[in-house]
Amino acid sequence: MAVPFYDDEDEVYFDPEEEIRLNRQIRENISKFFAKKRYFCGGTVPETLLYSKESVELVLSTPFNQGLYYCQEVLIKQLPVPENTTVMGVDWDVHLVLRLINDAIDCVIPVEQQAGMMMLYFKFCRGCSHATRNEFLEWSEYNSCVA
To answer: Which residue ranges in the chain fall short of pLDDT 50?
Structure first.
């Protein structure tokens, strides 16, 4: 995925070295974020899935606000509601999202990559089928009022 950059006069250009650096950073952040997380069907998440082009592009292209809203409105609703619907007085779904944000912060993941990481979590660790870039983009078209 070509990464656009802008010069002082707002001209778009593509820097292949910056794209390589950014892809490397995203792969390192994926590695840190998923180091202790389990695959939804057992074991560790396969590296071929974690570091796939699709995974890297999802992390790279998911805006924080829209991605977080998508996790709340679409992905969490695919999960079974636990018996205890609150954790320390907070609804379980809010607690889960806050825990994932905290995990990302602990791993020193930039905010620009956090929503994509959360979507990968729902895909790989919770088995949510709608945690793909295409599903997110399609949803975003109909929910464009979310900033």
So the answer is: 147
Q: Which of 44, 67, 45, 53 is nearest to 130 (CA)?
A: 67
Helix segments in 12-81, DSSP class H = 16-33, 47-50, 53-61, 64-70
What does the alpha-carbon distance between residue 130 and residue 78 come to, in Å, rounded to a whole number?
A: 9
Domain of residue 30 covers 4-142
* CA gap 108, 32 in Å, rounded: 9
40 DSSP assignment? T
Is 71 part of a structural domain of the chain? yes
Return the closest-CA partner of residue 122 out of 66, 61, 74, 54: 74
Residues 65-104: tens digit of each pLDDT: 999 999 999 999 999 888 888 878 889 899 999 999 999 9
